[in-house]
Write a structure and sequence with these properties.
The chain has 333 residues and is α/β, with parallel strands linked by helices. It has a domain at 10-16 and 66-109 and 142-322: Ribokinase (UDP-N-acetylmuramoyl-L-alanine:D-glutamate ligase). It contains 13 helices and 14 strands. The strands form two sheets. It has a nine-stranded mixed sheet, sandwiched between helices. β5 (81-84), α4 (91-102) and β6 form a beta-alpha-beta unit.
Length: 333
């Protein structure tokens, strides 16, 4: 990295699906009636989305999507944050833009004028805190090359890519362009693998992206094992640590490990009463990247990530209601 590069305008630029999240408490019987598998994420049609939305009890609605959640939480932690993602020119798209901007995130992407409506994720939360997601992707899958602002990439210290957006070929091409623009400007590229099923569908492409373009990798145990086709977490972790400069690998209640070269840091999960696991991984990435932007070391990054995740899963919804800014200063390296 060149020491002569100019200071970045933003600490973090997220690129991902722009989705309106609808989070509502339900019983297990609701899942049974609507043939939903607890803890899963399923893609649904526009008609299915309308029917399920009508059947859900009143819930919390906010701008969402994995990277958008990370961006909003990171902004709440004091980082300077921008986001790129596609919404439609419709009421939900307007709501998404208003909400994420109010969270302190710069959102310059132009809306889709003609085409699918804004995406939405319908999240049923059962009493055990498990979230079952039914997602209609709508306009967000139209994100592609024309939406990528390479100047904004070059003006961001870390460009954070969301694995959920990896399905459309146009988005994959945009990811590679973003990585090229970031590295040409002396910046960093981070990737969240997002979901083991995403990795299963595009394993070879993800492997190439990680090996050749990613500096910071976020993954949970299932995702990193899927990426490297390893049955044992430790074997997959070793391979990840050998391919990226920094790997943050989460293991739910077992905490996380952070790998930087030969350095390995084990971070315990913060104690918490689980209410809703929606957005836990997103919040972990937010805390980690916000601490990284503040110049903190691997242990502090992992600790801030763990506490941010705990704050999210102790409540409904993917955005912490408490002020978390003191976390970065209060945690020691």
């Amino acid at each position: 990295m060149s020491s002569s590069r100019p200071p970045a305008r933003f600490d973090i630029l997220g690129i991902g699906n722009a989705i309106v999240d609808v989070v509502a408490p339900t019983g297990n019987d609701f899942l049974s009636r609507h043939d939903l598998r607890k803890g899963s994420m399923a893609l649904i049609s526009a008609d299915q989305a309308e029917a399920l939305y009508a059947a859900m009890p009143p819930g919390q609605e906010s701008s969402g999507g994995s990277a958008a959640n990370t961006c909003a939480v990171a902004a709440g932690l004091g980082a300077r944050v921008a986001f790129m993602g596609k919404v439609a020119d419709d009421p939900l798209g307007t709501a998404f833009r208003r909400d994420i901007t109010a969270a302190g995130v710069h959102f310059p992407t132009e809306p889709l004028r003609d085409g699918a409506p804004t995406a939405r994720c319908l999240i049923a939360v059962t009493p055990d805190g498990q979230r079952t997601m039914s997602t209609y992707l709508g306009a967000c899958v139209s994100f592609g090359g024309p939406d990528l602002d390479e100047a904004l990439v070059a003006d961001s210290t870390v460009t954070y890519l969301e694995g959920y957006l990896f399905d459309p070929p146009s988005a994959q091409a945009a990811f590679l362009r973003a990585a090229g623009a970031a590295h040409a400007a002396g910046r960093l590229v981070a990737l969240s693998l997002s979901d083991a099923f995403c990795v299963d569908r595009h394993r070879a492409a993800f492997r190439g992206l990680v090996r050749d373009h990613v500096d910071i990798l976020f993954a949970n145990e299932a995702e990193v094992c899927s990426l490297y086709e390893e049955n044992e977490f430790e074997a997959a972790a070793r391979r990840a640590g050998a391919e990226v400069a920094l790997a943050a690998l989460t293991r739910s209640e077992a905490g996380s490990i952070v790998l930087r070269g030969a350095e390995r840091v084990e971070v315990a999960a913060a104690p918490v009463r689980v209410v809703d696991t929606t957005g836990a991984g997103d919040a972990y990435a937010a805390g980690f990247l916000a601490a990284h932007a503040a110049g903190r070391g691997p242990r502090a990054c992992g600790e801030v990530g763990s506490r941010a995740a705990a704050a999210v899963i102790a409540q409904y919804g993917a955005r912490p209601q408490a002020d978390l800014r003191e976390l970065i200063a209060s945690i020691q390296d």
